[in-house]
Amino acid sequence: PAIEFERAQDANVALQAVGDSGKFLAGGTNLIDLMKNGVERPSRLIDINRVALASIEPLPDGGLRLGALARNSDTANHPIVRQKYPLLSEAILSGASPQLRNLATNGGNLLQRTRCPYFMHTEFARCNKRAPGSGCDALQGFQRMHAIFGASEHCIAVHPSDMCIALAALDAVVRVQSAGGSRAIPFTEFHRLPGDTPHIDTNLSKTELITSIDLPPSRYAANCRYL
């Protein structure tokens, strides 16, 4: 399918360009796969890699701000992350491969879609996450790696991110921007359980852009590990 492509130099330009049918393109490690499989069919891609959102810097209160476009590898190996938040460093390094972590971004990690094969492959017609109201082939299919907690009769898939587990444990805050302003979302309120709307993964609007993930100061985080 024909796709419009635009490179944005700053967040405001990206937000104006994306529209209701566009998608932001950062590392693309999940989005491109979904497009190849025909699961995602955006009419427009807005490349945001030139937007200045890749820094990792201390916050005045002693916490740490992770830029949404900072690569997973850079985040996991950042000296402050390794010293103060080893849980996060180990969680990131538990996921994917070095090649993918070198390309994947922090914001993109949060927005991964499920790895459920019934969702990823369109030859399985029934998937409420991909085609709302069609049913769920996974319910009667192979159950390995599907949900034990938080599932519903409409979807039993799970979010694939190791990084997100650590961010939830660390009480992170997701900062997002839209054309109308910015807001902060507590991490445990960012993702949604499937319920009867499994096609809606997060509480992020289509016209909002993740700008950073803030980690609060913590007395215990330096002693936590990820298994």
Secondary-structure blueprint:
Blueprint: E1 4-7, H1 11-18, E2 22-25, H2 31-36, E3 44-47, E4 56-58, E5 64-67, H3 72-76, H4 79-84, H5 86-93, H6 98-103, H7 106-110, H8 117-120, H9 162-169, E6 173-178, E7 181-186, E8 209-215
Parallel strand pairs: 1-3, 2-3
Antiparallel strand pairs: 4-5, 5-8, 6-7, 6-8
Helix pairs in contact: 5-9
Would you write up a description of this structure?
The longest helix is centred in the N-terminal third of the chain and has 8 residues, at 11-18. This protein has a 5-stranded antiparallel beta sheet. The chain has a 3-stranded parallel beta sheet with strand order 1-3-2, with helices on one face. The chain is 25% helix and 17% strand. It is an alpha/beta fold.
Please give a quick description of this structure:
By secondary structure, the protein is of the alpha/beta class. The protein has helices spanning 11-18, 31-36, 72-76, 79-84, 86-93, 98-103, 106-110, 117-120, 162-169; strands at residues 4-7, 22-25, 44-47, 56-58, 64-67, 173-178, 181-186, 209-215.
